[in-house]
């Protein structure tokens, strides 16, 4: 049935590459050129921040950036660097209705999250604030969490966190300014309090830029009694100097 449905849809709608829109033959959603333009993050990477490291020092690897500023979340992972094809795909998720590739993104995130999944009780997508949700009509992080849920069987709690206001970049802020920037940015839905207490939570987002948003969510969830808060994203900005964050 599935194969027949795919063939029928091929007949009417030839599959298009989610990256560049060119016609492709398979169902992997990307053409060969776009695949090659993805900078997948693989080991060695920092066990805390998930950023790629130039060499493998052996054992548990924690970057200097993570030691200089220990984040409020426990571990971050991302499928790829925020560049090339991934950047285009994420842009398409946010600003157009071109919503293909969810299965692929789900499989990618499952692979990138790796060991974290066995220690996860449930997923929480990073919420958009209401005004942005209204203008975009959907939250791409919630759709990515659904895609990861399909691949892993982990349940997702899309309404657990509520965003009260946007957080701005933490770069260049003093520790006191950082705390002010993220404090009160998120709240927890009252009826989700009991499920968060003692839980190991995996946050889901499309891109980790400075980590400020993940930190704000983790701070709130831990205040409410969460044991561990990790984050998985489709992409991560790694080019900037992370030691200043
Ligand atoms: Zn392409």
Description:
The structure is a single chain. The chain is α/β, with parallel strands linked by helices and 245 residues long. The protein folds into two domains: 1-36, no CATH class; 42-52 and 63-244, Rossmann fold, CATH 3.40.50. It is 36% helix and 14% strand. It has ten helices and six strands, in the order H-H-H-E-H-H-E-H-H-E-H-E-H-E-H-E. Strand 5 (200-208), helix 10 (212-223) and strand 6 form a beta-alpha-beta unit. Helix 5 (102-113) packs across helix 7. It is globular. The structure holds zinc ion (ZN). Zinc ion (ZN) binds at residues 17, 19-20, 22, 30-31, 33-34.
Summed up, the domain count is 2
Helix content: 25-40%
The 3D shape can be described as globular
Query: How many beta-strand segments?
Result: 6
Order of helices and strands: HHHEHHEHHEHEHEHE
Poorly predicted regions are 240-245
Number of helices: 10
Ligand identities? zinc ion
Structural class: alpha/beta
Strand order of the largest sheet: 1-6-5-2
CATH class group of the largest domain: Alpha Beta
* Major sheet description: 4 strands, parallel
Topology readout:
Layout: H1 2-12, H2 32-36, H3 64-68, E1 75-81, H4 84-95, H5 102-113, E2 122-125, H6 130-136, H7 140-152, E3 161-163, H8 175-182, E4 186-188, H9 193-196, E5 200-208, H10 212-223, E6 228-236
Parallel strand pairs: 1-6, 2-5, 5-6
Antiparallel strand pairs: 3-4
Zinc ion is lined by residues 17, 19-20, 22, 30-31, 33-34.
């Amino acid at each position: 049935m599935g194969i027949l449905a795919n063939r029928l849809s091929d007949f009417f709608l030839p599959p298009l590459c989610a990256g560049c829109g060119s016609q492709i033959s398979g169902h992997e959603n990307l053409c060969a050129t776009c695949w090659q333009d993805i900078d997948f993050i693989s080991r060695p990477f920092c066990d805390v921040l998930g950023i790629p490291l130039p060499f493998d020092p052996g054992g548990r690897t924690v970057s200097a950036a993570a030691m200089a500023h220990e984040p409020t979340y426990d571990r971050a992972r991302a499928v790829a660097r925020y560049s090339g094809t991934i950047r285009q795909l994420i842009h398409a998720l946010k600003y157009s209705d071109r919503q293909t590739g969810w299965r692929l993104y789900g499989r990618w995130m499952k692979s990138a999250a790796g060991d974290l999944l066995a220690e996860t009780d449930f997923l929480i997508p990073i919420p958009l604030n209401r005004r942005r949700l209204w203008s975009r009509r959907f939250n791409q992080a919630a759709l990515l969490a659904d895609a990861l849920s399909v691949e892993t069987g982990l349940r997702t709690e899309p309404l657990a966190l509520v965003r009260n206001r946007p957080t701005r970049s933490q770069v260049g802020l003093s520790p006191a300014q950082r705390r002010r920037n993220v404090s009160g940015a998120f709240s927890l839905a009252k009826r989700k309090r009991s499920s968060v207490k003692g839980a190991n939570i995996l946050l889901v987002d499309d891109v980790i830029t400075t980590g400020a948003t993940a930190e704000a969510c983790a701070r709130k969830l831990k205040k409410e009694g969460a044991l561990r808060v990790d984050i998985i994203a489709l992409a991560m900005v790694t080019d900037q100097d992370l030691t200043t964050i």
